[in-house]
Amino acid sequence: MAKGHKGKVAVITGAASGLGQAFSHRLAEEGVKIVCADIQSAEKTLEMIKAVGGEAIAVKCDITNPADVAALGDQAKKHFGGVDILVNNAGIYPMKSFEEMTFEDWRRVMSVNLDSMFLTCKQFVPGMRERGWGRIVNLASNTFGMVVYELVHYVASKGGVIGFTRALASDLATHGVTVNAIGPSLTRTPGTTSWTIAPGGMQPEQMFAMVAGMQAINRIEEPPDLVGAISFLTSDDCAFITGQTLYVDGGLVRGA
Q1: Which of 104, 177, 189, 224 could cross-link 18 (Cys pair, CB 3.0–4.6 Å)?
Q2: Which positions ≥6 away from 98 have C-beta within 8 Å?
């Protein structure tokens, strides 16, 4: 069990499936009470948490909507009293060439991938500061350090996540709150496997194989590959680490 997890409360966005589901399950195994926030039903995640003896609630939430995020905070306080850990996992990655991209496309990606983190942090940071302990982990991406096509809005949003993480870490460091980011590689999740066509016109499995072949650890990344990093970055062992982006990508991005 990670040091300091038992009895803590975590809000995890995008918890209904994929990485968010894996993060919720891992932290619940370590004694963290989970608030599963997602615009989709998170009942499957709740079942997984209950199966390991954990405590959790699911809150339907559009994380781009300030009123929904405020309601999320109210539900977390009502059920568990407060929030110690925030994992900003939810994100979208629609593929479109820059020439075809509209301002609405751009704003949608920025809203879900970056603006939402501002809203959730505004909601939960005050309580962390009052208690003198908090852990925030934001999902970035290793695409910020790579050549990547048809994802200009996505890569820009993840670059913003890295900058937001560094700056917020400075603001909160004297209050016992750490802020870090994780940069995964292309990970096999329900979202990525649902692509009809991947960037460059490839089929998804071709894309997975190509990316895996460029990694030092040349196999496809799966959600369980990331849960150890979440466990560490949300623990007491991370008390002197803040403002960092940890690339959990099989060694694809090095020296970034």
Answers
A1: 189
A2: 152
Tell me if the pTM is above 0.90: yes
**Non-local CB neighbours of 107 within 8 Å, separated by 6+ positions:** none
Residue 193 CB contacts under 8 Å (≥ 6 apart), including other chains: 204
Per-residue H/E/C for 210-222: HHHHHCCCCCCEC
| Catalytic center residues | 154
Spatial contact of 23 and 86, defined as CB atoms under 8 Å apart = no
One-letter amino acid of 234: T
B/e letters for 85-114, b = 16+ CB within 10 Å, e = fewer, are bbbbbbbebeebeeeebeeeebeebbbbbb
* DSSP per-residue letters across 139-203: E--GGGGS--SS-HHHHHHHHHHHHHHHHHHHHHGGGTEEEEEEEE-SB--HHHHT-SS-GGG--
Residue 131: beta bridge partners? Answer: none
pLDDT in tens, 190-242: 888 776 655 667 788 888 898 999 999 999 999 999 999 999 999 999 999 99
As a whole number, mean pLDDT of residues 164-183 equals 98
Q: Measure the CA–CA gap between 68 and 54, rounded to whole angstroms.
A: 25
Residues 28-38 as b or e (16 or more Cβ within 10 Å = b):
bbbbbbbbbbb
